[in-house]
Amino acid sequence: MDRIVLLGTGCPSPSHIRYGPSTLISTKRLKILIDAGSGVTQRLSEFGLAPSEIDIIFITHLHSDHIVDLYQLYISGWHTGRTKPFKIVGPKGIKKFFDKTVEAYADELNLRVEWEKRPNHEGLEIDITEIDKEYSYEERSIKIKSIEVQHQPVEPAYGYQIFVDDKKITYSGDTRYSINLEKASENAEYLIHEVFVDLNFNEKRMTEETLENVKDYHSTPEDVGNLAQAANVKKLILNHFVPPVFDEESLKAEISHYYKGKIIVGKDLDEFVL
Fold first, then answer.
1. Consecutive H or E run containing 93
2. Phi, psi (5° rounding) for residue 97?
3. Mean pLDDT, residues 129-133
4. Count of alpha carbons within 13 Å of 90, Cβ hemisphere only?
5. How high is the pLDDT of residue 198?
6. Which end of the chain is more exposed for a tag (fewer CB within 10 A), N or C?
């Protein structure tokens, strides 16, 4: 059965309920991962999928909470029998980041390769594509297109459209209100969108400017609701919550003032049939 699986719905703040951001598009033809937040391999295991079964990983942007477990996916995929290159698509800078990460672990990996004598050497090959403004990928009748979104000063940053047969899924990535994203979301079966809920001011770890700046490059509940309504999406899945603990019913009620369709407050390991 083709489905969307929310592997992690959290943010940089650690949570045992909401792991770092990562979403799986699982079909019989292709296993697609979007982002590689903290704990993604554990969530894959809970879902019943080995890291070696992931065909391709799409990265939205280079904030640490979206890429921190890329190497864990790489090495655990090899451990679980991957026999093809580790394939990543992401913004400019992703190749430098991952090459440096692999370099940092090189001594350990070389020792492991030499001692363990695993047969699947091709599973350690790396295939990275950096997006240059626009990118389109198609394999086994599944299409993925990049969407440039608004997460400045982090740039470039991307969302993605995923087409599975006659179903369109739009994934926001991290963004403030984005016209590009609104257009890309038109009539989508699912819009998976981040949301800035609120942050309680704490002078020990932030200033008033910190609070405003974090809010500024994310989408408020009003932003999310207005975009979903304007795009006429069928179902809105809320994801990547800042902070990870909040009043879920209050959030749904606030967004429902602007969006009249079905609102789902995503949780780790939630599944949605395509």
1. none
2. -60, -50
3. 94
4. 27
5. 86
6. N
- CB-CB contact of 78 with 122 (8 Å): no
Instruction: Answer yes or no: are the C-beta atoms of 38 and 63 closer than 8 Å.
Output: no
In angstroms, rounded to a whole number, what is the distance separating the alpha carbons of residues 172 and 233? 13
Which residues, listed in sequence order, are joined to residue 148 by a DSSP beta bridge?
Answer: 158
Spatial neighbors of 110 by CB under 8 A, at least 6 apart, are none
pTM of the model as a whole: 0.97
CA dihedral of residues 45, 266, 176, 224 (deg, nearest 10): 160
Kindly report, residue by residue over 225-270, the tens digit of the pLDDT: 999 999 999 999 999 999 999 999 999 999 999 999 999 999 999 9
Distance of CA 262 to the CA centre of its chain: 21
- Distance, in Å, from the CA atom of 39 to the CA atom of 160, rounded to the nearest integer, reads 22
Domain segments of the chain: what residues?
3-273
Strand order in the sheet with 142-148: 136-139, 142-148, 158-164, 167-171, 190-196, 235-242, 262-265
Tokens of 132: 């240059």
Tell me the C-alpha distance between 254 and 248, whole Å: 10
DSSP code, position 208:
H
Nearest Cα neighbor of 94 from 132, 144, 123 is: 132
